Amino acid sequence: xxxxxxxxxxxxxxxxxxxxxxxxxxxxxxxxxxxxxxxxxxxxxxxxxxxxxxxxxxxxxxxxxxxxxxxxxxxxxxxxxxxxxxxxxxxxxxxxxxxxxxxxxxxxxxxxxxxxxxxxxxxxxxxxxxxxxxxxxxxxxxxxxxxxxxxxxxxxxxxxxxxxxx
Length: 166
Prior knowledge:
The structure is a single chain. The protein is α/β, with parallel strands linked by helices and 166 residues long. It has a single domain (20-163), classed as SPOUT methyltransferase, trefoil knot domain (Alpha/beta knot, 3-Layer(aba) Sandwich), CATH 3.40.1280. It contains 6 helices and 7 strands. It has helices at 4-9, 32-45, 57-64, 79-88, 128-131, 151-163; strands at residues 22-26, 48-52, 73-76, 92-96, 103-104, 115-119, 136-139. The chain has a 7-stranded parallel beta sheet with strand order 3-2-1-6-4-7-5, with helices on both faces. β1 (22-26), α2 and β2 form a beta-alpha-beta unit. This is TrmH family RNA methyltransferase. Residues 31-160 form the tRNA/rRNA methyltransferase SpoU type domain. Keywords: Methyltransferase, Transferase. One of its GO terms (molecular function) is methyltransferase activity.
């Protein structure tokens, strides 16, 4: 186990322009606080964040960026077209969704190629026409009364798993 000073000494020396290997894609966001939390998780695991061009999103990201350094954020236009382009470019598209045939989070392999983690709307999930663009769906098992987690928590768990850090 590394000491704190060893971990600090091994930190990245400069900010990245784009990690590119893993992209978190909350394409139908409902709460700005979730975007800020996901931005922090993206930094922690070396991922980028893809968000739609909505008027309130830049302010939510600025407020959520408590690290106060430039983070890797991609603004998308139409979410469906953006997802289709990601697939066409060879990225694996994984949706966090309760769906028939979804794999359990524990069985999700680490990303070895460019991967997009699609996160749906807090209430309605990933739209049906976007589900058709997924290569696979992953579900997060729950034993409590709820059936879903909020987007920031679910996205963070999936990003850590995809990054191979858990």
